[in-house]
Amino acid sequence: YWVEAGGARFASTRNAPEAVTQIAPQLMTWYQDQTPGQDLRIVAAHPGGPAIMRNLAETLKLDEAQLVRSRQSLADYGNMGAVSLADVLARHYDDPPAPGDAGLIIGLGPGVQCEALTCWWAA
């Protein structure tokens, strides 16, 4: 990752989608520690690309409905970097989960960095 006159740049490798499979189990353990007894219902994930989305879904055992907003954002705009997650969150407001549903907001970045927040939907 570096910044130059034209803006911020980063280089990634083909291993990025596989890195998600290493991160996801630890992410799920962390989620369960933070939200005992709460099923993972909301997933607002940065749509890094089709392979990243596929590996995230498989590793976290997500159903298609949990990633539909992330997949729609990717299809409509591609990977816009950090702002992609803002678009995914906006889509949750357009098509809201049920009040009280718990979940994860997952940010993925260059070199496959992962940041996450637990969340609960309030009406």
Task: Please give a structural write-up.
With 123 residues, the chain is α+β, with helices and mostly antiparallel strands. Strands 3-4-5 form a three-stranded mixed β-sheet. The termini are far apart. Helix 1 packs parallel to helix 2 (50-60). Helices cover 46% and strands 23% of the residues. It is globular.
What does the radius of gyration come to?
14 Å
Number of strands: 5
| Secondary-structure class | alpha+beta
Major sheet summary line: 3 strands, mixed
User: Count of helical segments?
Assistant: 4
Order of helices and strands: EEHEHHHEE
Molecular shape: globular
Which band does the percent of strand residues land in?
15-25%
Indicate the percent of residues in helices. Answer: 40-55%
Question: How would you write the strand order of the largest sheet?
Answer: 3-4-5
Poorly predicted ranges = none
Distance between the termini: 39 Å
Mean pLDDT: 89
What would you say about this model in short?
The chain has 4 helices and 5 strands; from the N terminus they run E-E-H-E-H-H-H-E-E. The chain has helices spanning 16-34, 50-60, 64-77, 83-94; strands spanning 2-4, 7-9, 40-45, 102-109, 113-120. A hairpin with a 2-residue loop joins strand 1 and strand 2.
Name a few traits of the molecule.
123 residues, two-stranded antiparallel sheet, 3-stranded mixed β-sheet, 4 helices, alpha+beta, single chain, 23% strand, 5 strands
